[in-house]
Amino acid sequence: MTNTQTPLVLDIKGNSLDDGPGIRSVIFFKGCPLSCVWCHNPESKKAGPEIAFDKGRCIDCGACRETCPEQALSKANPFYIDRKRCTLCFACVAACPSGALEQVGKEMPVTDILEQVLPDKPFFDASGGGVTLSGGEPTLFMDFTADLLTAIKREDIHTLVETCGLFDAERFVTMLYPMLDTIYFDIKIIDPTAHKTYCGVPNDRILANFATLFARAPKDGKTLLPRTPLIPGITDTEKNITDIAAFLKKLGVTQSALLAYNPLWHDKTDKIGTPDPYKTDKAMTAFADNSVLEKSRKIFAEAGIET
Ligand code: SF4
Ligand code: SF4
Q: Where in this chain does the record put each Radical SAM core domain (predicted)?
């Protein structure tokens, strides 16, 4: 489950107001042990590099087709790139004048990441913000993430990790936990069969890890916030929301977060050439109406959990 390789970074987003308190820089890692069918960042699922093609930016100059040594590019290919032929040399990316082709995932040493986020420290300090590690799954790369968190903490910056919860708890507590101020922990589905179906893995370890952390986080002065994305017909069913509320209530959780569905991930699947079985699904291609969120909030409130 743990990967000792240096992770690839998808992006570093500055000035974020959506990924924790205050103004934050968000570092998106590439690679995740789950494979949620609705993944908001489908390009973050695989740990290795990929190539993306943005049809809307292509001016059809042909430079990439002339450059490719593998003849992997053709308008006849469903997603332009024949990924069976492509060797990920990225010569076409360098040749493209419009930015339509993009290398997805780049190695960045800790020093380079720090260099990029440190100029925003005055904004972090003024707003109560900091750095958020997201993905993908930052805990998939325990060694690198520990080095990165150590470097960030040395600069006295608030740290937050967004995790799917599937990790080796002992290593997490030893290597990452001491340098974390806040942990956003996804609790998506309680039914084990449904979790395996929609997220690709069983959920027993995830639920156990949450319980382990919740038993100690408050007294260690850390914020541990469970979060549930409301995915139409998958996680937002009355049964699943009731089950999650019951699971959290039993542990003594009084604060949680419910995340409204955002369908924008569909735009990304064509770019990286992955199948999208929900592309024409009415509920999965629309923004959720507020009633879904309100209904779920009511169930949580009845269990004594604020959202
Ligand atoms: S990355 Fe290299 S092999 Fe792949 S399509 Fe581009 S030029 Fe061809
Ligand atoms: S080089 Fe870029 S703009 Fe030109 S055809 Fe290729 S993808 Fe399109």
A: 18-306
